[in-house]
Write a structure and sequence with these properties.
OB fold (Dihydrolipoamide Acetyltransferase, E2P); 3-stranded antiparallel β-sheet
């Protein structure tokens, strides 16, 4: 999910090297693109790094056939599983399963809205969106906070109310210094490889 709430299908791949980089994920762009490819879970797919940066699935090399490998369910990445070791909402992992956009946001369970060929979550408090927007705010051209990433932002959000009465106090040195810190207080990638799983 992007910081604006757009739900983008993503393929989880068996690790493969493309252009000297090990690729484990590739974008599927949108539901129409997935349908045009005809790709299903377990297919071997062609991938390339668009602009030598973003890996994307470009076609099906060989469709999945027959029964799944004996260890298929054990190969589902941990990041796609919930606390009870079950596949998270919006995750498709069963052999030869067809991908469909979920009608609810996989992150916050809010209703997902279709806008042309795209789907989005309009909940402003959805965690991935909060993290994405905060990353932009803390980066270059804004607060310029060094060393802050998604994990730190998620921890910060978890311990503070998600309301307008919460503010972020920045303590640090001016531009050109070696570091700055943030505290919070209450104010008021062409290769052929298997695509075993996909999620939005």
């Amino acid at each position: 999910m992007g910081n604006a709430g757009r739900l983008t299908p993503r393929a989880h791949l068996d690790p493969v090297e493309v252009g000297g980089v090990t690729v484990r994920h590739a974008t599927l762009h949108n539901a129409d693109y997935v349908a045009s490819l005809g790709v299903r879970v377990g297919d071997r797919v062609f991938i390339r790094r668009a602009g030598d940066v973003i890996p994307q699935v470009t076609g099906v090399a060989k469709a999945a056939e027959g029964e799944p490998p004996p260890d298929w369910s054990d190969r589902v990445p941990a990041e796609l599983l919930g606390e009870k070791k079950e596949a998270r909402p919006g995750v498709f992992w069963r052999w030869r399963e067809k991908f469909e956009m979920p009608d609810r946001c996989p992150a916050c369970d809010s209703k997902a809205f279709q806008e042309g060929k795209y789907w989005s979550c309009r909940n402003p408090k959805c965690l991935p969106q909060l993290i994405g927007r905060t990353l932009i705010l803390s980066g270059g051209g804004a607060f310029e906070i060094d060393g802050i990433g998604e994990k730190q932002i998620a921890q910060l959000i978890a311990i503070r109310p998600r309301t307008c009465s919460t503010s972020i106090e920045i303590r640090g040195r001016r531009r050109g210094s070696s570091h700055s810190t943030a505290g919070a207080r209450r104010a008021s990638r062409t290769s052929s490889h298997r695509s075993p799983r996909s999620d939005p």
